[in-house]
Design goal:
Elements: H1 3-14, H2 20-30, H3 36-43, H4 47-68, H5 70-89, H6 95-113
């Protein structure tokens, strides 16, 4: 996965667990694409301080995902829903195979949510 997309996903899922200051700096770096120097000027801290803060934020966000697996679980559920949609839209699916696809998807999603 592209690094910026990964950072965005991590922030979307776990950003609220960062402090206000961490969130602002992280958003400026990831979403607003500001340089370390621009962020340093904005918050009156050193460039190295910004770098260290971003590294700590990233480590924290990655740590939350390693423990909670919310992005991974969401991806699995999306894949199951996509397979279910494909089965429903199939022109040559018989009712038994459609029922089996629905049952498999519901079971997989239920397992992810428990």
């Amino acid at each position: 996965m592209e690094k910026i997309v990964e950072q965005g996903l991590l922030y979307d899922f776990y950003g609220e667990l960062l402090t206000d200051h961490q969130r602002r700096v992280y958003e400026d770096a990831v979403y607003n694409d500001l340089s370390l120097m621009e962020i340093a000027k904005e918050y009156d801290i050193s460039k190295q301080g910004v770098h260290d803060l971003l590294r700590r934020c990233t480590n924290s966000l990655e740590g939350y995902e390693a423990k909670l697996h919310m992005i991974e679980r969401t991806d699995k559920i999306r894949n199951q829903l996509s397979m279910l949609l494909s089965a429903a839209q199939s022109d040559n699916a018989d009712i038994d195979s459609l029922k089996q696809s629905i049952s498999d998807a519901v079971n997989a999603i239920t397992e992810e949510l428990s």
